[in-house]
Automatic annotation (TrEMBL):
GO molecular function, one term: isomerase activity
Protein name: DNA topoisomerase III
Gene3D superfamilies noted in UniProt: SWIB/MDM2 domain
Keywords: Isomerase
Length: 106
């Protein structure tokens, strides 16, 4: 018999894990393919891509064209193509990139 400071152990509940079934044609959330607008397609191409791949391709474009600010690497300088994606702004912070990108995908 347990004393007041002792507790009886309860048996652990059985947990079962099932693998999620594979979905054809994409997924949900970050893996859902999104179609870029014409302005964004000029930078990354017109194929539907997951949000993560779109961000990666934008960064590849930024690095390929040396568009990070030399003094402050958190800032992105826009060329003519990116200026359309950045809604006419000459420069944005890397933290604004997702916000600006979201306006150009559906």
């Amino acid at each position: 018999m347990p004393t007041s400071k002792q507790t009886t152990a309860k048996p652990a509940a059985k947990t079962t894990t099932k693998a999620a079934p594979a979905k054809e044609g994409g997924g949900k959330g970050l893996k859902a393919p999104l179609t870029p607008s014409a302005d964004l397609a000029a930078v990354i191409g017109s194929d539907p891509l997951p949000r993560t791949e779109i961000t990666k391709k934008i960064w590849d474009y930024i690095k390929e064209h040396n568009l990070q600010d030399a003094q402050n690497k958190r800032l992105i300088n826009a060329d003519e193509k990116l200026k359309k994606v950045f809604n006419g702004k000459d420069q944005i912070s890397m933290f604004e990139l997702a916000k600006e990108m979201n306006q150009h995908v559906k």
